Amino acid sequence: MPLTTMTGPILALSVILIITSLLLTLAILIHKSRGGGMSDLFGGGMSTAFGGSSIAERNLDRITVVVGVVWLACIVALLLLWKVMA
User: Fold this and answer.
1) What pTM value is reported for the model?
2) Which sign does the torsion angle of CA 45, 50, 55, 59 carry?
């Protein structure tokens, strides 16, 4: 499709999709894995020594899920908009 058919909602959803893709990638990389991961850079290793998951880790889980849902909703919305325009 030519660029002239790019409507405002499609452009806005595309920008949101790019931003959420970057945020989702960052959030996944920060998560603590079994081997420690990048979360140890921010002090995540200290809280796990005391057992259980820290408040920061639970909040990161919630943020990752919310960003993932927004990312998926953007993909579905873009597919529907492109199908309507085609």
Assistant:
1) 0.71
2) positive
CB atoms within 10 A of CB 19: 14
Which two three-digit tokens encode residue 42?
């921010």
Question: Residues 32-38: contacts with CB within 8 Å, 24+ apart?
Answer: 32/57
Q: Which long-range contacts (CB under 8 A, 24 or more apart) does 75-78 make?
A: 75/17, 77/13, 78/10, 78/13, 78/14, 78/17
Both tokens of 47, joined, read 């809280």
Q: Which pLDDT tens digits describe the chain residue by residue (86 residues)?
A: 555 566 889 999 999 999 999 999 999 998 876 655 555 566 655 555 555 568 888 899 999 999 999 999 999 999 999 888 87
